[in-house]
Amino acid sequence: MADPTLVLAAADKVTGSLGAVAYGLAAIGPGIGIGLIFGLGVQAIARQPEAEQVAFRYMIIGFALAEALALIGFVVPFVFS
Prior knowledge:
The chain is built from 4 helices and no strands. By secondary structure, it is mainly α.
């Protein structure tokens, strides 16, 4: 069994920016969302090419909303630091 004082000493040496970790975690959701938006959008256009303009319009709106979440996730750690 490890000595508790050694475990605490190792925990004291952890350094870094919590904001960077928070942004990394916040970027996961929009990254997955953008991939799904464009992947399913291409699939929809391939199934029904005559609806390309409508599908592309909704793809751009979805991309803008997902990207806004990523930008909010980038700003929030700096605001609360």
